[in-house]
Amino acid sequence: MKALYKPGPQSGFELVDRPEPAAGPAEVKIRVMTTGICGTDLHIQSWDSWAQGIIAAPLIPGHEFYGEVVEVGEDVRDVKVGDRVSGEGHVVCGICRNCRAGRRQMCIHTVSVGVQRDGAFAEYVVIPETNAWVHHDPSVTPELGAIFDPFGNAVHTALSFPLVGEDVLITGAGPIGLMAIAVARHAGARKIVITDVSRPRLELARKLGADLAIDVSTTRVRDAQLELGMREGFDIGMEMSGHPSALPEMIDNMNHGGRIAMLGLPSQEITIDWGKVVTHMLTLKGIYGREMYETWYAMSAMLSSNPVLHAGISAVVTDPLPAAQWEKGFNLARSGMGGKVVLDWTQL
Ligand SMILES: NC(=O)c1ccc[n+]([C@@H]2O[C@H](COP(=O)([O-])OP(=O)(O)OC[C@H]3O[C@@H](n4cnc5c(N)ncnc54)[C@H](O)[C@@H]3O)[C@@H](O)[C@H]2O)c1
Ligand SMILES: [Zn+2]
Ligand SMILES: [Zn+2]
Q: What is the pLDDT of residue 78?
């Protein structure tokens, strides 16, 4: 099969022929149709210090994918050949304390598809049956199915705290921040303000229904509050940029008792005013991955019940490309100007 491959501890990928993987007893083999390009993949491509610390090369990267099941292991009970699935990329141990308690997203032995085991920038990928999310709704297209992983990040973050009637600040209008706008709207938020420094992304944010999309290289969040007639501060914050200046400004703009869900992976150390966290009684919650599998249930349920949300999330895929054009796709993703880039593995 064709696959994007990192043959060893060095930068770059090659599109090469690799042996097809075989499904183990409790695994399913998937013919990959689409794979999303994520920031993680850019780190793996450039082989920065984060990648060097975590990646087991040789490796086929790719963890945001959709495809059709073509083979199931002998112990597979529910997933069938022909099922259309998206993949949960966190493979958990099943026996640690959190796994046994049903909190699989908190597994202490998580192994990530496309990071520590071969992933989905390939014609075929193998994952445990339990990691395959079967789509029963035909309106989930291969492009939409490819972004269930980052959509799940947005849903996990946005649904961390009740949103009905709340004023929401999202920092970072990358693909996940953009999707969080649509989810917060679905979940009943009042005002939604989003920040970024990329004009095209701020434009996308307006299309997705943000009340205000502000460029923090020129405008302060405080000014956004004034413009919207807010008097006390944001009730809910979602940090989705990882930029060290976003969280301090968010903290400065929260109402007392405000709650902050943090998804963005900090690009460097972040200094915050802890005094304010204490005296304003703020809650900060770290978010990693998706709840397994309540987030997945919520994603499918919300998409099938809300056409506006369905259209909004679908619109976050701005650059579908044949997998043969993977280099162009990676460059587009690295530019940070559009939404999600999705490679089509049926077009090689
Ligand atoms: N915790 C998790 O499980 C998880 C999973 C996936 C991604 N992430 C992280 O979540 C974040 C968002 O991911 P994404 O895929 O949307 O990617 P992304 O990195 O493309 O989005 C980040 C956005 O933040 C913007 N930005 C830069 N400086 C800013 C500032 N000062 N204020 C506001 N915005 C600013 C960038 O222009 C970009 O549009 C990234 O940090 C990513 O590493 C976390
Ligand atoms: Zn990802
Ligand atoms: Zn575990």
A: 98
